[in-house]
Amino acid sequence: MTRDATPLEHVACALCGADDPEPLRWLDDLRFRTLLSPVQLVRCRRCDFRYLTPQPRPGNEAAFYPSDYDPFRRTSLTGRARRLLLRHEVRRLWRYLAPPRRILDVGCATGDLLHCIREAGNPRVYGLEPDPRAAEAARSRGLVVWTGTLDTLPRIPASFDVVLFQHVLEHLPQPREALAIVAEILRPGGTVILWLPNGHSWAASLFGEAWMGYDPPRHRSVFTPASLRRLLAHAGFVLVAEHHEWHGLEWAWGLRLLARRAGADRLAKLLATVHLPLVLACTPPAALAALSHRSGRIRVIAQKVPAPPEQAGS
Ligand SMILES: [Zn+2]
Q1: Global pTM?
Q2: How far is the CA of 229 from the centre of ligand 1 (A)?
Q3: Which domains does the chain have, with CATH numbers?
């Protein structure tokens, strides 16, 4: 047997590098059951950052992404609902996405977001996706998509105006390094838009291990607006907007995962068959959380701090 004995490894804090974790809770993969045993959610005692340990060894992630992993699926009813929401999101963000901007979507999966932006009128869209099947599916829609990660992307300074991370940053083993690369390829004053789970949310407190934002071991980091702000500042970005999503998706998922955690598989299956009505039914409490700035799904916009102007006459 030549394979690694374990596809998981102990990791230190990805923000400050300290290896001083305070255990918070055990997390199991309730969605896809890819874990042989639970992993631990910890808090870095030095900088307060929350992350999983152990985590998938980089290069060993495939075992934890089943073929029916949502972002790779494009035909289901939930897929259609997601695309409607995406179109709405693109309209709301159009002042950042309009031509002639060059846009890079990191971890673009099958290219739904890029497709929507192109459909809305900006053809200068590019994608980066580590999963070869998903990347090929995106290319079959006529999109320019490179198979790989930020590490493997040729770094041409200031070559993009906007970089998108749609539910991607929490999957990356080195989020700090990823944002440093983004700062390099963005023009000064360029924008990074991130969609991600918010660990400082009502849903995270209420659902505990069953909160969909944990999604172990695919999600390695659990960001909060505070830790995100620090991470962005470190890479030379300032946060300019923080939006809290109001729909009931994560609450519906929370109920489904609670049922699975309790071993009530028949109830979990039943809830899955009424997923969209369940999302609608869960929207009032989710909207209240959003109004209180405690939604479990946020979108933040940050700007690369422009270089100081050259001093004249020196
Ligand atoms: Zn730390």
Answers
A1: 0.92
A2: 14
A3: 66-304 (3.40.50.150)
